[in-house]
Design a protein that fits this description.
Elements lengths: L5 E6 L4 H16 L7 E7 L5 H11 L7 H8 L2 E5 L5 H17 L6 E5 L6 H10 L9 E5 L7 H12 L7 E3 L7 H11 L2 H4 L7 E9 L8 H7 L1 H18 L8 H13 L6 H7 E4 L1 E2 L1 E3 L2 E3 L17 E6 L11 E6 L6 E8 L20 E7 L2 E10 L7 E10 L1 H4 L5 H11 L8 H20 L8 E2 L6 H8 L10
Parallel strand pairs: 1-2, 1-4, 2-3, 4-5, 5-6, 7-13, 9-18
Antiparallel strand pairs: 7-14, 8-12, 10-11, 12-13, 14-15, 15-16, 16-17
Helix pairs in contact: 1-2, 1-14, 5-6, 6-15, 10-15, 11-15, 12-15
The structure holds nicotinamide-adenine-dinucleotide (NAD).
Length: 492
């Protein structure tokens, strides 16, 4: 009764995303019974492949998963390959013939999911052809799943959005932000709205500042070509970090439904302060990693990476301050940072509470300073949360010390946490858009990012590379908080 019925048409079926994420995720849905008899997948790309060869690609992509050969073969038999140049109108006619045939063969009720797993340059043209060549069905559902990056700035995002909206209604569009598919990001809502002791304190009377860190230990690796056109601001801050900040800042939704949550996200983003150029200069720090020798091995700097210009000024690190101008958050900075080649891979949120109005223990022991209460939400690599409270030190006298109440687990290791893409694909099959990004959210975060990008473009950095591989970023990122009398909680 859980079985979903749909035809998937994947544009970019030979690509990296399809192999690494989409096929394994579809397979897990198959193992769990969400996909069974009534589904089929058409993979398209330009290369001429046979179905047999395509089955081999799909099979190979599942090699890390636990499965029997029979199960894999039965799953792969639902896959069909269609050589297809997305810019050629005639190819869509061939595609539609195959789609129609599979629709009958597998009784797919004209339900179709279109997945854009290829270069964003083609998103607009594919959407246009899906309508003009009448691939969109009249009686089933038609849903478009679209990958990041969604635009390069506000103007290009708006243009892309208009192209897509010419063929699809907003509620048919599922803009992927895979961070929203992560267990612990979703858990932000559980922690906030399932716990009175937390939500009661969730405002500017009790919270001093909130810190969001998405640090990566790896460098750009093989994504350098794309990265050179984007940088950390576009790659991480405009989308993932902004989405996490939004979930932390939004008001409690009327119910836990897609539309109610979305309403609140859009509302709180409406209060996101868009910096003036002067503020952007002050509130944002950029960095680029240089080479380093770690444990005797030399790590190359960003400018030495393949496909990177030797004088590149693309930022691989951003730290900045976001502010929501509303009753709940006025005066509470959201400090955010992300970067490559940092000391440790981690995604986490540190919520720092205000100090008590006075420290009565001072009189007893004058070297005693109360530590900050901090709620930490761990997203990756382990999932869970921690609460730092002050307790009495053992022994005579009355000194205090911070203790950590920690709840952590590795959901992936427990085997019951669906991978982000698996969850998002199932959401799209269910027509649930809670964990996807609405245009009104995107437009606001682009406006926010654009100001910073513009200031940066007008003032080329003179000190790049300005942080060492394996450090936690440029010194200016620490000064950003020190200036406000604060410091980064996570400091590995
Ligand atoms: P890729 O380069 O590996 O694959 C691109 C695919 O498009 C290939 O199958 C190629 O054959 C096909 N293609 C190219 N030109 C075509 C044309 N004219 N007609 C038909 N097919 C054509 O790219 P990828 O890494 O799989 O990324 C796909 C999308 O997913 C991009 O938007 C990317 O930004 C996004 N994305 C990828 C990842 C990832 O982990 N790979 C992560 C996040 C987002």
């Amino acid at each position: 009764q859980n079985e979903k019925v749909a035809l998937f048409i994947i544009f970019g079926g030979s690509g990296d995303l399809a192999r690494r994420k989409l096929y394994p995720s579809l397979f897990r849905l198959y193992q769990k019974g969400y996909l069974d008899q009534h589904f089929a997948v058409i993979g398209t790309a330009r290369r001429p492949w046979t179905d047999d060869y395509y089955h081999q690609i799909v099979t190979d992509s599942l090699s890390d998963l636990q499965a029997t050969d029979e199960q894999v073969a039965a799953f792969a038999s639902h896959f069909y390959y269609q050589s297809h140049d997305v810019t050629n109108s005639e190819h869509y006619v061939v595609l539609e013939n195959l789609a129609k045939k599979l629709d009958q063969q597998y009784e797919l009720q004209s339900n179709r999911l279109y997945y854009m797993a290829m270069s964003p340059n083609f998103f607009g043209t594919i959407a246009k052809h899906l309508k003009s060549e009448q691939i969109l069905t009249a009686d089933g559902f038609n849903r478009l799943i679209i990958e990041k990056p969604f635009g390069h700035d506000y103007n290009s995002a708006e243009e892309l959005n208009e192209q897509i909206r010419a063929s699809f209604a907003e509620d048919q569009i599922y803009r992927i932000d895979h961070y929203l598919g992560k267990e612990m990001v979703q858990n932000i809502s559980a922690i906030r709205f399932g716990n009175n002791i937390i939500e009661s304190l969730w405002n500017n009377r009790y919270i001093d500042n909130i810190q969001i860190t998405l640090s990566e230990a790896l460098g750009v690796e093989e994504r350098a070509g794309y990265y050179e056109t984007a940088g950390a601001m576009r790659d991480m801050v405009q989308n993932h970090i902004s989405q996490i900040a939004t979930l932390l800042a939004m008001e409690p939704p009327v119910s836990f439904s897609a539309t109610d949550i979305r309403d609140e996200k859009i509302k709180v983003l409406h209060s996101l302060h868009i910096d003036t150029p002067e503020e952007a200069r002050r509130n944002f720090v950029r960095g680029q990693y240089g080479p380093a020798t770690v444990d005797g091995a030399r790590l190359e700097g960003y400018r030495e990476a393949e496909q990177v210009a030797s004088d590149s000024n693309v930022e691989t690190y951003v730290a900045g301050k976001m502010e929501f101008e509303n009753y709940r958050w006025a005066g509470v900075p959201f400090y955010v940072r992300t970067g490559k080649r940092l000391a440790k891979k981690a995604t986490r949120v540190d919520v720092v509470f205000k100090q008590l109005p006075m420290n009565i223990f001072n009189a007893v022991s004058d070297e005693d300073k109360l530590g900050d209460n901090v709620l930490t939400i761990y997203v990756e690599p382990t999932e869970g949360f921690g609460l730092r409270v002050n307790a009495k030190k053992l022994g005579q006298g009355f000194a205090t010390r911070p203790v950590d109440l920690d709840f952590r687990h590795s959901a992936a290791a427990a085997g019951n946490s669906p991978e982000a893409y698996e969850r998002l694909l199932l959401d799209a099959l269910n027509g649930d858009s809670t964990n996807f990004t609405h245009w009104n959210e995107l437009s606001q975060t682009w406006k926010f990012a654009d100001v910073v990008e513009k200031v940066w473009a007008e003032n080329e950095p003179t000190d790049f590379p300005n942080y060492r591989s394996g450090s936690m970023g440029p010194a200016a990122a620490n000064e950003l908080l020190a200036r406000d009398g604060r410091h980064w909680i996570f400091d590995p």
